[in-house]
Amino acid sequence: MEAKIAQSIKLSTRIDTVKIVEKPNGFLPVSQRCKEQQRFQTSISTQLPKRTSAHHKPVVFKVSCAYKRFPASVLQSGGFPATLDEALILKDKSQEIGPYLNGRCIYLVGMMGSGKTTVGRILSDILGYSFFDCDVLVEQAVGGISVAEIFNLYGESFFRENESEVLRKLSSMHHLVVSTGGGAVIRPINWKYMRSGISVWLDVPLEALARRIAAVGTDSRPLLHDESGDAYLKTFKRLSVLLKERSGAYANANARVSLEYIAAKLGYMDVNNLTPAVIAIEALEQIGSYLKEDGIAV
Predict the structure, then answer these.
(1) Residue 229 belongs to what domain range?
(2) What is its main location (predicted)?
(3) For residue 263, what is the domain's CATH number?
């Protein structure tokens, strides 16, 4: 398998740290946690599919992904720190399922604004995995321009083709948490790639999604930006159409994380009051349930 990957991917890893001895679950001894950090730098080179246009040159897929894995006591992602209780629960859950994951990748699917990147970073931190955002990888591959610009210049079809190629490459790797684009689920070939790992659907109510997106603006959301009018109403209307088109595809995921269920369980009226760490805990719980149902975990 490693030889096969090496034929299409040039992988170089650098670890900038003093000598670290990790436990099997990926955690450092308590005395070392605040002194030692680990940085991975990955360079991947391959060629993305050509666009059938004389105005666009073949794109070379060159990705540099660097991240620091912080200890559980200061676990944070996207500026949202986990409380001590949340960090301890995350640690326990990761220790429960870690041995049964067997290095398989975790693919997060869900609507735009569902928190895939934020939750994904927490999961990668706690599991000792690397984190990849498909949108970012495509952006870097196409010269560093944004997803919105890619849609505007080359069209959605071009973006989807490159998104599929990114997933194809990542599917041959291990120990990754991957945040997919909201529309990745509509292409059957992407499910073929994601079946190499475990797919997790972050299911967020439309009202909450619309409020989140309207609050920060729709400029970076090419499927929402063209409509005029009240930000919340136009976002809710468009998201409703997209969810109707995609809900059946999202349901193909191996595990579902329902924010409505989590909120009801914890006594919250608004799902937006849930912390990313709490959502990550539920994700680990649902992954564990899937592994048990699949006969992998006992």
Answers:
(1) 71-293
(2) plastid
(3) 3.40.50.300
